[in-house]
Amino acid sequence: MLKFEELKSFLDEKADRYNTPDFIENDPIQIPHRFSLQQDIEIAGFLAATISWGNRKSIISSAEKMLSIMGNSPYDFVMNYSQKDLEDIQDKSIHRTFNGQDFAYFIRQFNRIYKGNESLESLFEVRESETNFLHAIERFRNNFLETEKHRSHKHISSPGKNSSAKRIIMFLRWMVRKDKRGVDFGIWEKIDHKYLSIPLDVHTGNISRKLGLISRTQNDWKTVEELDIAIRKFDENDPAKYDFALFGLGVTKELL
Predict the structure, then answer these.
(1) Which residues lie across from 220 on neighbouring strands?
(2) For 36-76, how does the pLDDT look when each residue is reduced to its tens digit (9 = 90+)?
């Protein structure tokens, strides 16, 4: 087991190694990187993050399918689609259990939200008494999903129900982190990235356990918060940079 300073130095070095533009090429974050308009980045990023489970090549291919359907202009499509456009989408296969019905539902919800908001940022703002995005994500869910039950609700995870909410946490890292390294966008100015967490999945969870950062065996929200405590000791202002270290170590299998 590494001592605190040794572990911090190790993780800092790994984060520095993987937090480079080279990371973009094989990661779903390449999808929003194809755009410059903030709303295009948000929509493309949210959709790519939503389907981010399974093989990364498959995720990117499925995200490209959605971009193609939207004419590679997500915001324009969301604001100006016709009823026939949505009907044509309904029966399409998109990505695993995220199907055309889900895609059409997301488009309708984006349309409603952007009619009243210039950016998605306002829906994720963290309040003064909060220490992470748990309540912000719940507020976003309630806004985005509204009250009517729909099959698409399962694609927006709830940390309030102890989900790790990995895909939303990853999307938030993309939008919020500002470090001029060329990977994360940092286009949301009102949210401090000290509130960010590590997107917790099988890889980052296993590496975190190997390094003694967490002890819980489940990859759930309680474990996200346990990992928060550990990584914020290394850098309380930018804890999510260690996602690059943990993810990189998981992909390269360096610790196996």
Answers:
(1) 163
(2) 999 999 999 999 999 998 888 999 999 999 999 999 999 99
